[in-house]
TrEMBL record:
Keyword ATP-binding among UniProt keywords: yes
GO molecular function: ATP binding; ATP hydrolysis activity
Keywords: ATP-binding, Nucleotide-binding, Transport
GO terms classed as biological process: quaternary ammonium group transport
Pfam families: ABC_tran (PF00005)
Record's protein name: ABC-type proline/glycine betaine transport system, ATPase component
Occurrences of domain ABC transporter (ranges): 5-238
Source organism (scientific name): Caulobacter vibrioides OR37
Record-linked InterPro entries: AAA+_ATPase, ABC_SmlMolc_Importer, ABC_transporter-like_ATP-bd, ABC_transporter-like_CS, P-loop_NTPase
Length: 254
């Protein structure tokens, strides 16, 4: 296993309160990993530490073997795409400008940015005709797809997603989640996704990291998680999706 992301005893406090206890975690290159847990579990904090948006109080974060503390923020984030729940599209920019903003800041030629924008619209299953529209003219699902396209614009090897589907209706959510998993495989990404939806994590991810109280309680495959876990907090978290899976299996058997 080649590691894309390694956290070595990283911790974080805010206002004297520990939001992430000393944590070690290794994410293999090409893996799709879901971080699950309740509010305040430390999921988003961990994601921001990977992206250099927050610096650890202790420990270090390695990306492809290099300590991110030795890199500038802009240089680090060229190789890391970030998708937010709030999407965060610039309302005064067209869809095309939103997608191409990172390549533009990196000094790509205009023709290359235009070609990459069209390529990305195709990748995220959006019509090229929306390139000149404002984000306000799009549906929520379309805006989130633009957010994914923007995160992929500079061809990153790592994709971080913080509750990317949380604000979408169930049908749109499932369709976009399936497309993101397909993009992950097609582009050979290493993907780390924060979600409150354990069922979503089980269906999408290769591995699930369960967090509570700023600690990692489990880091296992979906199959292992559904089989049961000795930690009561983990068992409680997966109780509902386990029952749903069992009920669906019973219904399928007639």
């Amino acid at each position: 296993m080649t590691a894309a992301i390694v956290l070595e005893e990283v911790s974080k406090t805010h206002g004297g309160q520990t939001v992430l206890a000393p944590t070690s975690l290794t994410i293999a290159r090409g893996a799709f990993v879901a971080l699950v847990g309740g509010s305040g579990a430390g999921k988003t904090t961990l994601l921001k530490l990977i992206n250099g948006l927050s610096a650890p109080d202790t420990g270090r974060v390695l990306i492809d073997g290099a300590d991110i503390a030795d890199q500038s923020g802009p240089a680090l984030r060229r190789g890391i795409g970030y998708v937010f729940q709030e999407i965060g599209l610039f309302p005064h920019m067209t869809v095309a400008r939103n997608i191409g903003i990172t390549p533009e800041l990196l000094g790509w030629p205009a023709a290359e940015i235009a070609a990459r924008t069209e390529e990305l619209l195709d990748l995220v299953a959006l019509p090229r005709a929306i390139a000149g529209r404002a984000p306000s003219q799009l549906s929520g699902g379309q805006r989130q797809r633009v957010g994914v396209a923007r995160a992929l614009a500079a061809r990153p090897s790592i994709l971080l997603m913080d509750e990317p589907f949380g604000a979408l209706d169930p049908v749109t959510r499932v369709a976009l989640a399936d497309d993101v998993r397909t993009l992950h495989e097609r582009l050979g990404l290493t993907t780390v996704m924060v979600t409150h939806d354990v069922g979503e994590a089980l269906l999408l991810a290769d591995a699930v990291v369960v967090m509570a109280g700023g600690k990692v309680l489990a880091h296992v495959s979906p199959t292992e998680l559904l089989a049961g876990h000795p930690d009561p907090a983990v068992a409680d978290l997966i109780a509902a999706p386990r029952k749903q899976a069992q009920r669906l299996a019973e219904l399928a058997r007639g």
